[in-house]
């Protein structure tokens, strides 16, 4: 099995992949999500696991854009409870810290902790939480990164504080393959369609699902990069045993759309999730 995730080693994507593919053996890494999709299309790898949304940071733009731009299909999902830690190359006191290096999504996930404990700290952005840990590892300044306890162990870092994430922090990852392997069985489906910019276009498109009693569990729009004056809509919908109506939906929706891409049916993640208490983060200094 040739599979890959966002790198370097120590990302939450790698954690998710180890749960999703427990027998995978070696899991390759790439520095960006776009590079993962490039390698997939070029047949250097066959499967990738990428983050699609987070309960605080929302949708991951690079993944959403790649689903629209590349000829791919979705084959599954996994939801990971994210515990963030404050990591440093020395056992600094919180009042000594000068620099915070992190991925933008991690900063949003830990916004309460940062506002309460590091309100004036200088922030630098990087492409992944694990890359942030690598950078801070070699820093001469009193710097910290946001990352996992696994990344701390992997890179020999000190954990200054655990559990700095906001409450109920979860990231959903999707299993993506090339488009020549589209699935038509599962309890959840995804598709992208592009509508003309005119009154009622979205209403008419959503009515295709409503008339058949099909629930939509995610909808997101963005301006189409392919067609002028058009908007692309990404939709996830529940199947609930209605496989027979799928061809009808795709046909009817196709007549209303300027462009449509069916990304496939797949099984939703039904594993038992940990329960988080609502409220502020529960970060504890160690």
UniProtKB/TrEMBL annotation:
Gene Ontology biological process: L-phenylalanine biosynthetic process
Short name of one Pfam family: PDT
InterPro entries according to UniProt: ACT-like_dom_sf, ACT_dom, Chor_mutase/pphenate_deHydtase, Preph_deHydtase
Any one annotated GO CC term: cytoplasm
Listed pathway(s): Amino-acid biosynthesis; L-phenylalanine biosynthesis; phenylpyruvate from prephenate: step 1/1
Family matches, as Gene3D superfamilies: 3.30.70.260, Periplasmic binding protein-like II
Protein name: Prephenate dehydratase
Annotated source species: Thermosyntropha lipolytica DSM 11003
């Amino acid at each position: 099995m040739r599979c890959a995730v966002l790198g370097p080693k120590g990302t939450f994507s790698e954690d998710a992949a180890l749960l999703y593919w427990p027998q995978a053996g070696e899991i390759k890494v790439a520095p960006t999500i776009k590079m993962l999709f490039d390698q997939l299309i070029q047949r250097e790898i066959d499967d990738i696991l990428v983050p699609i949304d987070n309960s605080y940071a929302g949708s991951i733009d690079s993944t959403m854009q790649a689903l629209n731009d590349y000829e791919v299909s979705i084959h599954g999902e996994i939801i990971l409870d994210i515990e963030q830690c404050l990591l440093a190359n020395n056992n600094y006191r919180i009042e000594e810290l000068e620099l915070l290096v992190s991925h933008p999504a991690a900063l949003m996930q830990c916004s309460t902790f940062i506002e309460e404990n590091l309100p004036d700290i200088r922030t630098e952005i990087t492409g992944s939480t694990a890359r942030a840990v690598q950078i801070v590892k070699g820093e001469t300044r009193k710097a910290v990164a946001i990352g996992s306890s696994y990344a701390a162990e992997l890179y020999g870092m000190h954990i200054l504080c655990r559990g700095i994430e906001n409450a109920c922090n979860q990231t959903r990852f999707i299993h993506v393959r090339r488009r020549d392997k589209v699935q038509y069985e599962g309890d959840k489906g995804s598709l992208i369609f592009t509508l003309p910019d005119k009154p009622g276009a979205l209403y008419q498109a959503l009515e295709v699902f409503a008339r058949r009693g099909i629930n939509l569990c995610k909808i997101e729009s963005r301006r189409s990069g392919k067609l002028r004056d058009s908007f692309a809509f990404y939709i996830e919908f529940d199947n609930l045993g209605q496989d027979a109506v799928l061809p009808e939906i795709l046909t009817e929706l196709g007549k209303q759309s300027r462009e449509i891409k069916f990304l496939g049916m797949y099984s939703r993640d039904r594993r038992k999730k940990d329960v988080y208490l609502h409220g502020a983060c529960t970060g504890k200094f160690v």
